[in-house]
Structure formats: structure tokens, C-alpha cells
Amino acid sequence: MLRPWHTILPIDFGNELAVYQQIADGIIAEIKKGRLRPGTPLPGSRVLADDIGVNRKTVVLAYEALIAEGWLETTGKRGTFVSGELPRFKNEPPRTGSSFGFNDYHTIQPMQGSVTANLIAFNDGLPDVRLAPMEELARAYKRIFKQKARWRMLGYGSEKGEERLRLALTAMLSHKRGMNVHHNDICITRGSQMALYLTAHTLISNGDTVAMESPGYLPAWQTFGKAGAKLVPIKVDDKGMVIEELEQLCKSRRIKAVYVTPHHQFPTAVSMKVERRLKLIELSNRYGFAIIEDDYDHEFHFEAKSLLPLASNAHAANVIYISSLSKLVAPAVRIGYVTGPAAFIQSLASLRSIIDRQGDTIMEQAIAELMEEGAINRHAKRAFGIYGERRELMDQYLTTHLSKRVTYQKPEGGLAFWVRFNQPVDTEELRGKLLKKGVSIMSTERFSFTGEPLNALRLGYASLTQTELEEGIKTIATVVKR
Amino acid sequence: MLRPWHTILPIDFGNELAVYQQIADGIIAEIKKGRLRPGTPLPGSRVLADDIGVNRKTVVLAYEALIAEGWLETTGKRGTFVSGELPRFKNEPPRTGSSFGFNDYHTIQPMQGSVTANLIAFNDGLPDVRLAPMEELARAYKRIFKQKARWRMLGYGSEKGEERLRLALTAMLSHKRGMNVHHNDICITRGSQMALYLTAHTLISNGDTVAMESPGYLPAWQTFGKAGAKLVPIKVDDKGMVIEELEQLCKSRRIKAVYVTPHHQFPTAVSMKVERRLKLIELSNRYGFAIIEDDYDHEFHFEAKSLLPLASNAHAANVIYISSLSKLVAPAVRIGYVTGPAAFIQSLASLRSIIDRQGDTIMEQAIAELMEEGAINRHAKRAFGIYGERRELMDQYLTTHLSKRVTYQKPEGGLAFWVRFNQPVDTEELRGKLLKKGVSIMSTERFSFTGEPLNALRLGYASLTQTELEEGIKTIATVVKR
């Protein structure tokens, strides 16, 4: 130890850190650097205090702290020493990089975003965040923060979510979707993605077979795959999942579950026809497999039909029903939910408790408030009207500008069109070309689980205004025609 | 079909459901009940319209909807029939109970709640929600909802969490905890529980050995166990985890990770001594295992010591550091975070994207706002002062009323005391007796992973006022003395 202490421990009296703390920190730094070695004696408190220009009591305080923490030790009157119990570092270079291995989840493809600056973005079928009921949401949060029992909501709550919101959902499911659900058999989740994750991990044992729509929803494919399921793609045609193919599969092996998006199939936007629905329920009862019904945008069904969920059918005993308010309010409002047999939901909620303990109580209360006062309904009606118009415009522009190149069915509902090219088109190349012209489309190949090229586009229209829609479709037409 | 149509389809013109929809719903109900069978002809639209007293066009609309959906079919001029493709239900009783099996997570013990009405509750060591910075939080939410870019935050965001909050955390970790972390190497989670879950599932392959503190934190034990780890309990003494025992384990088998709560060990409240800390880091580097450092209530350290996290040590290359703002703000404000080697955090964030896609953007923005403006710091100082006083009171009341029955160390920090009985006490029986007298304590046996009785209590004091603390300790003393 050659340097004087006041150069080693420069005290900054303007620092917010207490002076004794600065001294202690400085000594620790010297120990870590190896300049103060185990057994090295420290100067007496008076000597050090004089040297660095502080009160002696301050040094005593620092020494006491370091002794209590084990950096220093004192042997009665002999003085204070650097602790002998410190393991010596073998001059290894600091932070040489970690040496433990871990599971690589990089292969999981993230869901694609909704808002891209200065681009006309045909997304996956997301709502227009510009229409989100922001004022209503802000007011609901404000009221929630002012309510009498506000302290209560800041503690821990039920892992199934706020009872108030579960009751509001129960009423909505009964009135609008013909579903008779007890609020204890609902688990509120963070968006439908968490409902999928919880369902997969509650349902699947390693190696279980799950039948999936193909083309289909990649995040579901990934979620069930990572949960250990063996995935079997089942074809989708213009009536929805081909149930005959599923029946063949059931005859050849035991299947654990079927994942379906019957209301508006993802990505083809087809609504599953009623005979397929009834047949699916019949198969589920006969073979004892679960139907995972993902009803991700129930509200936006534009054709004149009473299309109720599978889960509303009196004979459907094996349906796990997943839905969400995220598509209705905004993607960031991650309120999804899952209902199903009571014991299943109970187990799923227990799993949830070790994932994130509980949902966002404050947000759940705010959304319950909006449902109770009818604001969600009013917003749904308004959005329904606007998206309905945009759907008509989309239909019109596709017919005007692209009818010779593509085939499509105007979808009965949902927020996207499924547009198939009449001639083979490299959709990835198309995507690159369009991006240069300020139009973004989603990658189609993620929807294909069989490797078969889909030669189609899923064009979400709900986030685009009339001008953007026309401009976007025109641009696609120009690029495709070349 | 004997009954007249107007009794089968009673139209309610005051109903919010359109009349054609009511007709369609009624026909579907008859089909489902089996009273209208496949192939049955329906009356002509004019006949039905007259019978039920509606406009003919309304009936046509209903028929069209049912045809499009597949319930009915039409064969040109022959008329309209119930669709022949409907599978007949074999008069099975509806909803006979589900027939699929699933994983049973009921064994997961939920974390225990914080607020219990009319009870003096010694909890696990939770903050006092009555002190939560409610006004500040409400104002932050309000500002967030008014900001210019508010629409943007309603779309999808980064699975690592809002960059703004990650930057605020980076600054805090650097200033207060001596940690040099890049904001891309932080993943914000929903409380430290999700950080634990993500860490476990990113780190563990089936059968990996994880060393755990014993007694220890049950939710961590359950989380690593459910992730497939083989768990080995390591003793904890008055210097923290007994690292010599860990070293013996390392010599006998390969271990993947060690889970530690070095700042304030859960449940014993011991702060790990520095020689143990350095030895732990040395072992981690030598044997290549990960150190999972759960620093769940860093802010509340009352003794005069520079006790920085293991993660701040320049030689600690294998530390996965988990912390949280939930203990600082309120349990319902579920903002936790995890940092570690860049590639590890990247993989962990990918896993997160299939669990719930992303965090609560609105809450993350609000908390970032509070950190930036210093409100979190001000709240921390205020809470620190109040909890510090309560800690002194707790010490005083324990000495006054229970010193003959118990042994304890006044903890250097954390929001709970670990109180050991001098004589064997059935703590579960004690719990029952106390409950009858209006005092609740946590079950101690959940902390023991070896089956050994702990003969101790973890008494969280921070949520109780002076009166409640004195009353609570007195009651415990009365019951124990009998």
C-alpha cells in the first residue's frame, strides 16, 4: 500500500451517498481489485480520519459496517484487518462470459407488430388502435383509482382474475354468445396467447397428438409444439377444417385435442359450416378429445347469421373456449379468458399462479367498469360500423384493381381477407418489392405447416382508412402485374 | 310438426335482436332439439310470414342466413328443407361431463394474500398497500393517456417490455446497485414470479440439478420443480446458504444452477456474508453453474452496509439477477425484471412471447414516468422511514413480550423477522389458536423442504401499524405462554 489514503478514498461531500458509505465502498473496491489482500492491516480510525479529512466517528462507522458485512475483521486491540476468509481471486479476467448452457427459444417467431410508421400496413387482422376507446379507458382508470376500496386492489388477488370482470364476462357470454358459464369456471388471462399457453401446458403430456388447422395460426402451433405435443396438420377448405380428415386421424390413433378457429379461420377467414361443427362435436364426444375453440374476434361477424360458438352447443362437453377483449379494445389491453370444464379451469388457474401469480388487477377493474357501464358495447358498435364499411371498400378495391390476378371470398366476418393468386407468385419477393413502395404485407409462409406454398395473402383491412386501402391495393396490383 | 309456427317462433318486437335473427335462432333451436329433422320441409316464406305476423322479406332474410350457414338447404323450386348433412344426435344427454384428461396442478400451493379484513396479519413480508403512491400512480396513468403517442402504445410492443422502463431500470441499477447492465439485456416481467418461471424454463432441461436454500421460498421450489429440475436443498445458517455444503454437492455431481436470496434470505431474513458471496461466485465460475439471485426487496436494507448484489461483482459471469418493483410500489403493480448474459435474456424473451406476448405497456409506461420524475425514489424514502420505525417497534415488542420464549436476530433488512421458539411449538396449532383471537400468521412448514420442523415463525411487520404490531405480538405471547 504505497499511495496515501486520501488518493485512494477521495471523499465527495456533495455526493448523495453518506461519507461513511463512500469510505466503505472505496475499501471494498480496493479489496476487489486485490490491492488490499486478506490479512492486510488497516490504519487506525484516527489516522485514516486525519488523512482523508473526515471525522473519526465516520471512519468508525465505515469500519463497523465492513466488519459486520465480513469484509474486515477485528481482533480486539490488535486492530482491524482485511478479512482472512475472503477467497483470493486467481487474477482471472472479470466477466469472461457465462459458462452455463440453456434452452434456445430463438426459433420462436414473434408475432408481428401492428403499427409501422409511414407504411400502409396490411396486418394480420388487427383492430385500428386509432379507434380505441382511449377517453373511456382513461376515465375508467381514474375512477378505479378513486374508489373507496382502492387499497384492496393493490394487494394480491385471485389467480383467476378479478371476480367483477368474470361476472361481466359471464353476462356477456350468456347474452351474446348463448353460453352458460359460471364465473368460477373462467380464468382471465393476459390476452388469448396466455390462454393458449395455459391450455397447452394443462392439457398436454409429452407426445400427445394435437390436430391443428393447416394453414393455421403459427403462435398456436408453436405453443402446443413447445408444450410437447405431436402436431398433425388437418386441411382447411371453404367450409373450415376438413372434419372427414380429422375422423380418419381419430380412427388411426388416439388424439388429445383439436385446435380450431371456427368463427373466422386463421388465416383463411372461412367460417366453419354448421354440419362440420356438429360433426366435430360428435367426434369429440365419441373419441374423447378436447376441442380448443379459439374465438379471437367474435364481435366482428358481418353476415346475417346466428353463428354461435361451439361452446354454446348443449352437446359440446369437451370444449375449451378461448376468447379475448384485445381485438375489441386494443392489442395492448391484454385481457383474454378461457372457460371449460370446472376441474380443468381449476388446474389451469393453479398453473397460472406460478407463471405470473395473477393478472393486472387495475386493468381488469377498469375493463369491468367499461363493460358494466356499456362503454365496451358502444365501442363495439362503432367499430363494427367502421370495419363493416372498410370491408366493403376492401371488396370493391380488390374487385376493381386485382380481380384478374386473384380469387377470394368476401369473408363473413373477421378483420382480414384471404386472397389467393391465380398464378404462382413468390409472396416473399412480393413482400420485399412492396416494402420499397411503402406497403407492408405479412409473410404468408408462416401459416403453412406442411411446407406447401400457399400462394395467397392474408390482408388485414381494419386498421386502414379508405385512402390507405385504395392506395395499398393499387400498389399491390401494380407490383403484381409486372 | 304439430304446433303452429307462431307458438314455436314467438317474435318479440321489443327485443334488441333483429326479427329475422329471432326467427333464425328459433329454427336452429328446433333443429338442435331434434324436432326439425334433416330433410324436413319448411313452410314457404309467405306462409310462415303470415303465421307469425311478420313481413315476408324478414322470413326470406332468415332463410337466406340459415341456408348460407348450412342449417337449411334449398333445391330450386322444390322449396326449403332442413339440411340433410346435419349429423343426427343420438339422443345423448347434453353435457355429460368432459371426457378428456389433463395435468393436475392442484398441488401448487398458491401464494398467500396480503390483506385480510379485521385481522392483524403478519404476512410473508409484504409492503403496506396503504402507503402505496396511489395519487402519483393515478397521475402517471392520466399523463400516459394524454401523451401524443398514446395510440402507439396500444399496439403490440417488445416482448422485453417498454424500452423507456428498461432505460430507467438500467440507470437505477447502475446508481443504486453498482450493476452495469445494457437495457437490451433486461426483460421486464410480470413480477418476480414470472422472472422465476421464465428463468426456470429457459435454463432447465429435464433432470437438471438445482440447489435451493432450505428453508426457502416455496414458489421458487415449485417453479423449478415443475420445470423438470431435480431439487437439492442446501442448509442455511446465520451467514446465509452454507456454501461448503454446496461445494460438496458440486464435487459429487454436476449442478445446473443455484437459487439464492442473498440480500435477505427467505424466510430466515439473513443477509449472506461477504466471504460466502465471494466463494459462491468462485464456485460458479469453477463448476460452470448459473447463480439465480433473487433480490426481491433490495430497497429495504436498514443496517449501515454497502451490500451490493452478487450481480454487481466483476467476476460474477454466471449470475441471472431477478428483482421487482412490486415490493416497492404494491403487489398488484406486477413489474419485475431479469437480467443476465445477453444470449440467455434473448432466449428467455422469446419464450415470453409465447406465454403472454408482452407486458402491460400502459403500466410499464406509467412506472417509467414515476421513475423518471423521481416519485418512486421519494416513495421509497418515505416507506423506508416508516418500515424502519416499524422494524424498531417489532424488535422492542418481541423483546418485551416474547424474549423468554423465542430467539431471533434483528434482521439487517427485509420486511420480516425470523423468530425461533426455544421450546418445540406446533406452529400449525398455534396458527389456529391465533386466528380465533384475530391474529393471522403464515404457515411455517411450507418453508421446509426437508420435512424437518422449523419451530419458527416468519413475521412480516411492514404492513402493520404500531398498535397492530403491539397487539399482535402480545396476542402471540399470550397464546404461546399457555
UniProtKB/TrEMBL annotation, chains A, B:
Ranges for domain HTH gntR-type: 17-85
InterPro entries linked to this entry: Aminotransferase_I/II_large, HTH_trans_reg/aminotransferase, PyrdxlP-dep_Trfase, PyrdxlP-dep_Trfase_major, Tscrpt_reg_HTH_GntR, WH-like_DNA-bd_sf, WH_DNA-bd_sf
Keyword Transferase: yes
GO molecular function annotation: DNA binding; DNA-binding transcription factor activity; pyridoxal phosphate binding; transaminase activity
Presence of the UniProt keyword Transcription in the record: yes
CDD domains listed in its UniProt record: AAT_like (cd00609), WHTH_GntR (cd07377)
Keywords noted in UniProt: Aminotransferase, DNA-binding, Pyridoxal phosphate, Transcription, Transcription regulation, Transferase
Pfam families in the record: Aminotran_1_2 (PF00155), GntR (PF00392)
Record-linked PANTHER family: HTH-TYPE TRANSCRIPTIONAL REGULATORY PROTEIN GABR (PTHR46577)
Family: In the C-terminal section; belongs to the class-I pyridoxal-phosphate-dependent aminotransferase family.
Protein name according to UniProt: PLP-dependent aminotransferase family protein
Phylogenetic classification of the source organism: Bacteria, Pseudomonadati, Bacteroidota, Chitinophagia, Chitinophagales
